[in-house]
Amino acid sequence: MTEAHFKGNTWEETSFLMTFPDQRPPRHWVIGDVHGCADALQWLVARLPPGDRLVFCGDVINRGSGIEAAMELVWDLVRRGRAVWLKGNHERDLVTRLDLGLAPTSHPDLNGNDTYRQLGVARCRLWRDRLDQLPLAYWGQGWVATHAGFDPRTWQPDLNVRLAFWQAYDNRFGEVIVGHTPGPGLRRLGSIVLLDTGACYGGDLTAYCPETQETRRVSGLPATGRHLPALVHGSALSCVL
């Protein structure tokens, strides 16, 4: 690029270079099953670039001791346009059991649900519509994230599938990033990335970037003696309470 300057009785052009800050497009970080590990989730989100987009693979609820805190953190990120929360089998099952309208004493599945025990029926019902409307998949460029995989008979998202999908997948969607099946570290089966690293069982909570294949992880064990980063901006239920 040139800039014109007046010198004497004539105009002269001077070449110069312009520098710009890094303006790369936002990347994505797909996050495995949180399962109520709110402390680990706060630490992991704090380690991710603030301009990047987050995709939660489902099963944010149940198992861990900080279920409602994890739900509020994720929903706050969704409200601010930074994250997508995909439906997992645990979110689907809670909605199904709530819709049955049975008292927990007569419905062992609901009575044994960790989210129901921690939140109670009133607060669970406040979350019901949100959980029911969660999307089943998020499509990127050359990759897709979903909770468990695709039914190889229909190639629609399936929230419980494992082996049948793993064996039949033919790379038709590119890289498929899933949670659902906990294991020791991120694993690959061809073009399938298994991202549930067992945070609620003492493993890690892991984020994976499909654009760069980077991973970042934190321990799923509760933080002790550390000050958690403040990430939630008010209650995620504030608009419905």
Question: What does this molecule look like?
Answer:
The strands form 3 sheets. Strands 5-4-3-11-12 form a 5-stranded mixed beta sheet. The chain has a 5-stranded mixed beta sheet with strand order 6-7-8-10-9, with no helix packed on it. It has a two-stranded antiparallel ribbon with strand order 1-2. The chain has 6 helices and 12 strands. By secondary structure, the protein is α/β, with parallel strands linked by helices. A hairpin with a 2-residue loop joins strand 1 and strand 2. 36% of the residues are buried. The N terminus and C terminus are likely disordered. The chain has one domain: Metallo-dependent phosphatases (Purple Acid Phosphatase, chain A, domain 2).
Topology of this structure?
Elements: E1 2-7, E2 10-15, E3 28-31, H1 38-47, E4 53-56, H2 67-79, E5 83-85, H3 89-100, H4 108-111, H5 114-132, E6 137-139, E7 143-146, H6 163-168, E8 175-178, E9 187-189, E10 192-194, E11 204-208, E12 215-219
Parallel strand pairs: 3-4, 4-5, 7-8, 8-10
Antiparallel strand pairs: 1-2, 3-11, 6-7, 9-10, 11-12
Helix pairs in contact: 1-2, 3-5
Which properties best describe this structure?
Purple Acid Phosphatase, chain A, domain 2, about 240 residues, alpha/beta, five-stranded mixed β-sheet, 6 helices, 12 strands
> Which term fits the overall shape?
globular
Strand order across the largest sheet: 5-4-3-11-12
Count of distinct structural domains? 1
Indicate the mean pLDDT.
Answer: 85
Mind telling me the CATH superfamily name?
Answer: Metallo-dependent phosphatases
CATH topology, by name, is Purple Acid Phosphatase, chain A, domain 2
For the record, what CATH class applies?
A: Alpha Beta
Terminal Cα span: 56 Å
Query: What structural category do the secondary elements indicate?
Result: alpha/beta
The CATH architecture designation is 4-Layer Sandwich
